[in-house]
Specification:
Low-confidence stretches: none
Strand content: 15-25%
CATH superfamily of the largest domain: Periplasmic binding protein-like II
Mean pLDDT: 87
CATH class of the largest domain: Alpha Beta
Protein name: LysR family transcriptional regulator
Radius of gyration: 27 Å
Family: Belongs to the LysR transcriptional regulatory family.
Organism: Hoeflea alexandrii
Pfam families: HTH_1, LysR_substrate
Strand order of the largest sheet: 4-3-5-10-6
Number of domains: 3
Order of helices and strands: HHHHEEHEHEEEEHEHHEHEH
Oligomer: single chain
CATH architecture of the largest domain: 3-Layer(aba) Sandwich
Number of strands: 10
Helix content: 40-55%
Distance between the termini: 66 Å
Keywords: DNA-binding, Transcription, Transcription regulation
C-alpha cells in the first residue's frame, strides 16, 4: 500500500495546524485554505482513524484525548520532514557565520571552536567580532552571540549564562599600592572602564557607599578585553568575568584580591531567527555551545561560598 494511503500527510498537516492554533480559521489562514477545506480534511482524518479529534464548542474547539496523544508525534514528524528538506538543499561543505560580542568572541569562542569543528568537519565557521546589534534581515549572519538583558522579541533567544565578575589587577600594581586588603582600597588605583554599571553593582554588594568614579577617565573602555589588557599591563584595576580570564587568574598574571564576586541581569545570549531553528548547522551549533558554556561555567565560576 502506498504511503499516502496509509498516512494521510495532507490531513495530518491540517490537523497539526488546527490543534496548534486551537481553531479552524487561524489554521486555514496559515495554510492558505478555506475553512471548509480544513473541516473536510479533519473529517477525512477522523474517518481514517475512527476517532473524534476535536470537540466543537461555541467560538472555539477543544482537543480530544486522541488529538492530545497524536499532536506531539505529528509535530515532531513534520519537524523531521523539514529537516530532511533542509538537508537536501545544504551543500556538503557549508559556512556558519557567527556575529559575536568582542570579548566572548576572542576570550571564549575562538578558544573553544575547535571542538565544534572536529564534530562537524563539513561546516566552516566565519566568526566576526561585532559591537552592534545584528539585523538578520540585512546582515548575512546565521547566529548572533549578544551581550545584554534579553530575551529580545522577534528572535529565538537562548541564555548561555550570566557570568560572575570581580575586580582584577596585576600583582605588581597591588603591591605598589601597599596592598589591597579592603574593597575601598581599590579607589586608590586607576579604575579601568569606570563608567560600567558593574562597578557600582560590585561596590554596593561589597558594602561600600557608592563611590564617585567620574574622575577615572583615563581608561574609558567599554569592551572587557581592552579593560583586561590594560589591567595586565598594570595600568589599573578592571571589572572582569571569571570565565574569560580563568587562565590569567590561575597563572597569577591577574589577581582578584577579595573573596567576593557578584553578577547581574546581563547575560550572554545565543540569538537567531525563529524561522531557522531547524536549520541543521544552527541546531548543531546551538546544542554544542549550550553544553560547552555550561561545562566551562562549572569549571571557572567561583563557588557560592565566595559570593
Amino acid at each position: 500500500m502506498k504511503l499516502s494511503r496509509r498516512v494521510p500527510l495532507n490531513a495530518l498537516r491540517v490537523f497539526e495546524a488546527v490543534a496548534r492554533h486551537g481553531g479552524f480559521s487561524r489554521a486555514a489562514e496559515e495554510l492558505g485554505m478555506t475553512q471548509t477545506a480544513v473541516s473536510y480534511q479533519i473529517k477525512l482524518l477522523e474517518e481514517h482513524i475512527g476517532e473524534q479529534l476535536f470537540l466543537r464548542q461555541p467560538r472555539r474547539i477543544v482537543n480530544t484525548e486522541t488529538a492530545e496523544r497524536m499532536l506531539p508525534s505529528v509535530s515532531k514528524g513534520f519537524e523531521h520532514l523539514g529537516d530532511a528538506m533542509l538537508a537536501a538543499v545544504q551543500p556538503s561543505s557549508q559556512t556558519l557565520e557567527i556575529h559575536s560580542s568582542p570579548t566572548f568572541a576572542s576570550h571564549w569562542l575562538a578558544r573553544n571552536l575547535g571542538s565544534f569543528q572536529l564534530a562537524w568537519p563539513g561546516t566552516a565557521v566565519r566568526l566576526l567580532r561585532v559591537s552592534k546589534i545584528t539585523d538578520f534581515n540585512r546582515d548575512p549572519a546565521d547566529i548572533s552571540i549578544r551581550w545584554g538583558v534579553g530575551p529580545w522579541p522577534e528572535q529565538e533567544c537562548h541564555l548561555l549564562g550570566r557570568f560572575s565578575f570581580a575586580p582584577m589587577l596585576s600583582p605588581a600594581l597591588a603591591a605598589s599600592a601597599g596592598g589591597i586588603t579592603e574593597p575601598r582600597h581599590l579607589l586608590r588605583l586607576p579604575i579601568i572602564g569606570a563608567q560600567q554599571d558593574s562597578w557600582q553593582t560590585w561596590f554596593a554588594s561589597a558594602g561600600v557607599e557608592p563611590p564617585d568614579l567620574s574622575v577615572h577617565k583615563r581608561h574609558n573602555y567599554i569592551e572587557q578585553d581592552l579593560c583586561a589588557n590594560a589591567a595586565l599591563a598594570g595600568q589599573g584595576v578592571a571589572m572582569l568575568n571569571h570565565i574569560y580570564f580563568a587562565e590569567e587568574l590561575a597563572s597569577g598574571r591577574l589577581i582578584a584580591p577579595f573573596n567576593h564576586h557578584c553578577s547581574d541581569d546581563i547575560g550572554i545570549w545565543l540569538v537567531h531567527p525563529a524561522s531557522r531553528r531547524n536549520n541543521p548547522k544552527i541546531k548543531a551549533f546551538r546544542e554544542w555551545i549550550l553544553a560547552a558554556v555550561s561545562a566551562d561555567m562549572q569549571r571557572t565560576e567561583p563557588s557560592a561560598a565566595g559570593s
